[in-house]
Amino acid sequence: MTPIEKVEGRAIPLGLKNVDTDVIIPAHWLKTTTREGMGKGAFESLRADPGNLFDRPENKGAPILIAGDNFGCGSSREHAAWALGDLGIRVVIAPSYSDIFSGNAVKNGILPVVLPQAAIDRLMEVAETDPIHVDLDTQTVTTPFQDRFAFEIDPFRKMCLLEGLDEISLTEKSGAAIDAYEKKLDAERPWMRPAA
Amino acid sequence: MTRPRTLYEKIWDAHVVERRADGTCLIFIDRHLVHEVTSPQAFAGLRAAGRTVRRPDLTLAVPDHNLPTTPRRDAAGNKLPIADPESAAQLAALEKNAPDFGIRYIDATAPEQGIVHVVGPELGFSLPGTTIVCGDSHTACHGGIGALAFGIGTSEVEHVLATQTLLLQPAKTMEVRVEGDVGPGVSAKDIILHITGTIGAAGGTGHVIEYTGSAIRALSIEGRLTISNMAIEGGARAGLIAPDAVTFAYLKGRPYAPKGADWDAAVEYWKSLATDPGATYDKVVVIDAADIAPSVTWGTSPEDVVPITGVVPDPASFADPSKQAAAAKSLAYMGLEPGTRMQDVAIENIFIGSCTNSRIEDMRAAAAVIKGRKKAGNVKWAIVVPGSGLVKAQAEAEGLDRIFIEAGLEWREPGCSACLAMNPDKVPAGERCASTSNRNFVGRQGPGSRTHLVSPAMAAAAAVTGRLTDVRELMA
């Protein structure tokens, strides 16, 4: 996973609420056995409109996406995070996310920034013309106009993003604890193993 | 004396392998269900890192999303190929990955094949008090038998395959209590649609919802699975219903369920899981069952719910400006005008199936309405897709397939079907579908498709009248 600390650039001012993962990447793009190339299908229904935000020349390769409440709701498909990553998006800024999406984002080096709607409204305005700066280390979003918004993030997620950590390697260090748990479970509740 | 705990807290506490200083816990996973769409990249990751599956005995793989619901064998009994090359490749990947990693695999042509969330409880692989994950958000379904079950992304699928654990933050708790008796024609689907309309699509975000109250207790396991299935539509990653005598009776004798003395020990343990008197939830919502009507969605979010007796709402009627904008956009997509009676909306397609509503009780409810009637002339496509081979066999034994076929509906092979526009079952652009599935998102049933979420009985009613219909009128 690519570590992430500071991201500066254009932000796509999408702003919609309840953007579900079927909108981010429709199911027919999920018939693949790799993680690559998902950007082609990203936001397909929105991009069917020729004047859409994503295909405006100034937004090509924009590293930031601004959205409304409950971004990434619906299906657990990690393809949504892969699709955003393939578009070049490293940061999403929204008032709230679905629980599954925000986890998937972090595991793919995408930072889900949570800011109140008032801050989102201001950033949407700035994004029309100017770049936005996101600093994970100091947990701030700033604009060229002296706006400064602080955001909260779970410390473990922050560490994973800053260091680009592979969570499986991290968990494997707890191998002895997992062994001990399994042993205890087999002793206390042996019927937990599937019978057949 | 220990602090009173909720059902969620008891299951969580029993699965903590390690607790980190920041509150994150390494949680043991008792059951891992795997399907073809969200697993290939996880298996590829294991191969690349030279890792194995830690507990293949706790893992069960079954294909469902991509499978066409047309016959899978020819008249001579030979397996039929899958026409779409990408779908075929994804199914072939699972068929290879499962034995390569020692995982039990239910083949597309096996009698037990079906939608992963129908198969798990039906085989007794899913049990109360267990943690269950799957790379599919409707894993919440298994909460209906009292399992802490939730959807995960592919990175987490790989993590569980490799370590049989997940690193998780504890969720907040929410109680949705439905008290009283529901009226005639009101099913579990109507209850959960009503709940979703009440709490909103993000109402349960960050929470695990426990459904309680006399209306929930009165439901069969099929009904409870329908309720918990759609916890995710209210934003909650998991739903829970305390296991009770109904749960135990449902599970007893199922192939993977405990047997003999193990069964008695298991029931004893499961009985201890109910939320303690005095335990508190972070959030409580109380609903009067008498307020719930047969329900239907009008928009493109599952929170867009009205009673079938209602009308398409005016976007201006919503207080929140962002909801006003979203509703206007939804109505444009759905081709609906504010003030239109829901019962005047004509329907061209009917889908009875999905992990929400494809169990035997759903088949019976739909057949009871269809029996002795015919599909309306304006309905072009109407399919009934049982959730598993076992449901299909049971329905056929009861003659339900004949009722559907004689009325002009198609009786299909088990799978996810028209729920998600991934296999050949799709709703054409600009057409409506009365669907027993769980999501009415833009393009969910096919590009440009217009979904109205309903119960199996309501879908059956729409099939015979050709419009959204109050099923109570057909029950008289």
From TrEMBL, chain A:
Role summary: Catalyzes the isomerization between 2-isopropylmalate and 3-isopropylmalate, via the formation of 2-isopropylmaleate.
EC numbers: 4.2.1.33
Taxonomic lineage: Bacteria, Pseudomonadati, Pseudomonadota, Alphaproteobacteria, Sphingomonadales
SUPFAM superfamilies on file: LeuD/IlvD-like
Keywords: Amino-acid biosynthesis, Branched-chain amino acid biosynthesis, Leucine biosynthesis, Lyase
Superkingdom in the source lineage: Bacteria
Claim: Lyase is one of the keywords in the record: yes
Organism per entry: Sphingopyxis indica
Gene Ontology molecular function terms on file: 3-isopropylmalate dehydratase activity
Name of the molecule in the record: 3-isopropylmalate dehydratase small subunit
Subunit structure of this chain's protein: Heterodimer of LeuC and LeuD.
Pathway involvement of the protein, from the record: Amino-acid biosynthesis; L-leucine biosynthesis; L-leucine from 3-methyl-2-oxobutanoate: step 2/4
One GO cellular component term noted in the UniProt record for this chain: 3-isopropylmalate dehydratase complex
Family named by the database record: Belongs to the LeuD family. LeuD type 1 subfamily.
A biological-process GO annotation: L-leucine biosynthetic process
Family annotation (Pfam families): Aconitase_C
InterPro entries membership: 3-IsopropMal_deHydase_ssu, Aconitase/3IPM_dehydase_swvl, AconitaseA/IPMdHydase_ssu_swvl, IPMI_Swivel, LeuD
CDD domains, per database record: IPMI_Swivel
Listed HAMAP family: LeuD_type1
Keyword Lyase: yes
Domain Aconitase A/isopropylmalate dehydratase small subunit swivel, first and last residues per copy: 2-117
Chemical reaction(s) catalysed: (2R,3S)-3-isopropylmalate = (2S)-2-isopropylmalate
TrEMBL record, chain B:
Reactions the enzyme catalyzes: (2R,3S)-3-isopropylmalate = (2S)-2-isopropylmalate
GO BP term (any one): L-leucine biosynthetic process
Keywords (A to Z) from UniProt: 4Fe-4S, Amino-acid biosynthesis, Branched-chain amino acid biosynthesis, Iron, Iron-sulfur, Leucine biosynthesis, Lyase, Metal-binding
Entry keyword annotation includes Oxidoreductase: no
Pathway per the UniProt entry: Amino-acid biosynthesis; L-leucine biosynthesis; L-leucine from 3-methyl-2-oxobutanoate: step 2/4
Cofactor note: Binds 1 [4Fe-4S] cluster per subunit.
Pfam families: Aconitase (PF00330)
One MF annotation (Gene Ontology) recorded for this entry: 4 iron, 4 sulfur cluster binding
EC class of the enzyme, as a word: lyase
Iron keyword on record: yes
Domain of life where this protein originates: Bacteria
Chain residues that bind [4Fe-4S] cluster: C355, C416, C419
InterPro entries: 3-IsopropMal_deHydase_lsu, Acnase/IPM_dHydase_lsu_aba_1/3, Acoase/IPM_deHydtase_lsu_aba, Aconitase_4Fe-4S_BS, Aconitase_4Fe-4S_dom, IPM_dehydratase_rel_enz, IPMI_cat
Cofactor requirement: [4Fe-4S] cluster
Subunit structure: Heterodimer of LeuC and LeuD.
NCBIfam families xref list: leuC (TIGR00170), PRK05478.1 (NF004016), PRK12466.1 (NF009116)
Family statement: Belongs to the aconitase/IPM isomerase family. LeuC type 1 subfamily.
Protein name per UniProt: 3-isopropylmalate dehydratase large subunit
Gene name for this UniProt entry: leuC
